[in-house]
Amino acid sequence: MEKRILQLRNGLLLQHPYILLFVLILSFVAMDPFKLSPIAGRDFRPLKNDIAPFKQVMQSWPWDDKSRLGQGNLMFKNEIFGPESLEFDASGRGPYAGLADGRIVRWRGKDEGWETFALVSPKWSEKLCAQGVNSTTKKQWKVEEECGRPLGLRFDAKSGNLYIADAYFGLMVVGAEGGLATPLATHVDGEPILFANDLDIHENGSIFFTDSSMRYNRADHFFILLEGEATGRLLRYDPSSKTTHVVVEGLAFPNGVQLSKDQSFLLYTETTNCRMMKYLLKGPKTGTTEVMVNLPGFPDNVRMSERGDYWVAIDCCRTAVQEVLIHNPWMRSLYFRLPIPLRYLAKSAGTKMYTMVARLNDDGEILDVLDDRKGEVMKLVSEVRERDGILWIGTVAHNQIATVPYSF
């Protein structure tokens, strides 16, 4: 019987040469013999993601028709490199920013400019790490493991210490006077923290932070998205016992972290799944998670506004083609084996990156949306930090900060 099926199949291929050609091309692509694809040499394991339906999210989203974010001001262009997270200390000094070259810097005003406040790596040197405007390019990725890549920043109002989520050195802390940061958490349950991303500090001193993947580090973060892998974790560091615990695991690129004003819940974004999640810390459902809001794009950090609600930074937007790829891992396996650079594959999937920020309340209701539809100010956004009626906007990918006046 098997022999008969084989004969029929071979006969069909010979009678229809276009089918034979298609099979040969498909086989060639699948083998990627010349290692020309974006995933060449990778143990690529695409998975189906738990993501809200494309039409449902896009049709209900309150878009910004005025593109107000595009009216913002660019500041410190080519003076500051990949400022992912922005902070101000208890004395109002700042902003502080973690840079792509491994430094944490502080703005001292027009006369003094930017100064190096802290370092995360004892191996840091200007010769090795400081590559100027090239710090936000792939050139820096080769030295990030030695130089560090500080991402999330938070000041502890009680101690004045600055806590840092560094992509390579884990959870760290530096005193109010700056200097070389001290590692607090590099492993949990014997496993390395491979990609510490963001953090927030509970009133009891515990520090919640994200580890975005147990498979890929920051330099390979694109593969977290391409695979849809879900090995990320929400972690908690206990300063009294100096131990780290897993709070939630199996997350798809967990990213930004923010405690609620009353500390009854914690928000964290899942970049791959385009959503913000709520982890309950009080009440009958303590220890459970629920979807706070589904988003039209890929969220990064989330920060509290001056009114006690939340700003989330979103790289926009999802596309219908992406949804097909997300729900069909086998298609992704073939698509990303095409011998075509990743940027062109992204464009062919309809991707047109631009910046969006959204303000939400405790119930996940959208209160306001600002976007930069033409990418005039920023094409990628990492964080929104509101202070004294100004939105300070950081970006992991560009050498600048944007500011936008904002009134409630």
Describe the 3D structure:
The protein is α+β, with helices and mostly antiparallel strands and 408 residues long. Helix content is 19%, strand content 34%. The protein has ten helices and 27 strands. The protein has a five-stranded mixed β-sheet, with no helix packed on it. Helix 1 (2-15) packs across helix 2 and helix 8 crosses helix 9 (329-335). It starts with a helix and ends with a strand. The model is unreliable at 19-24 (pLDDT under 50).
Total strands: 27
Spatial strand sequence of the major β-sheet = 2-3-4-5-9
Oligomeric state of the chains present here: single chain
Give the mean pLDDT: 91
Radius of gyration: 23 Å
GO molecular function: hydrolase activity
GO cellular component, one term: vacuole
Keywords: Glycoprotein, Membrane, Signal, Transmembrane, Transmembrane helix, Vacuole
Domain Strictosidine synthase conserved region: 197-284
